[in-house]
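Would you be willing to look carefully at the protein I have copied below?

:::
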Amino acid sequence: MSRWISALFCFALSVLALSAAASETRVISGQITVLERMALPDDTVLLLDIGNAQDETVVQSRELTDGGQTPFPFALEAPVDTPLVLRVGLRAMDDVIWLSEPVSIEAGTDPLDLGPLRAARIPSMGFAAVLSCGNQLVEIGFMPESVRIRLNEQVITLQPDVAASGALYVDAENAATSIHMKGTSALLRIDGSELSECSLIRPDDDITQGVWNISAIEGRATLFPSRTELVFYPDGRMSASVGCNRLIGGYRRHGGILSFGRLATTMMACSDGVGEQERHFNEVLPKVDQFVLDAEGGRLTLYAAGSPVLRARR
């Protein structure tokens, strides 16, 4: 009898442990649709990204839509009892991308249905970070000679202006819209209305820090990895080499979402092995739609449709 009681007790503990584990996540759901009335390409990918208050990705999902059309339902399991930021987007392989506004999710334990979210086709935002302005999130993109902000499905380009301190950017068409940045804080005015004081929640460690040596492409170890490099610049430019020619182009980052624009390359003749490696790299890079950064270990992994396609170290 004591054995049965002991077994029953162990079973009860197992059930309690499973229940506790299950309660550590909550379901975040909703629908995504695009503003334009158009048919999406067959190769469109649904991009889902949930980050924490430090803008570090905690949950990601990539799903091929297989020719389907909006609205697309989604559901993700996310950590409980912590503030979160949700980004949802759609990407076609020709580098057309639609993104929703970042959605702030309060800490809680209950399932949350966000309802319909609208995604707008956006221009390049360069290096995209997020400003927290009270209870509102504003995306900011740093371009070579300007700053872009995205708020309520509107993208505004601001030009640099003279400031006694910090960095001031003003809308050339509407001087009542501006952003004045000092360190990691900012003062944002939209049509003369001042938002609550904003703070930049860009992570301290990021892909723009340092040179990445490419160690593998779709699981195949690279030749002479110390001669390879991948560099992300804060203004949205990138450069790369896998041992022969140099590639240059642009990239977009939106939380854990990452995509590359058109690439230009030098035209040197390469040895057979390195030349094949370069062709492989050129085929893979346009397919990338997310990244995972192991800052402590100095490792970067790029993914396409949920599969790792490129690994790098610094």
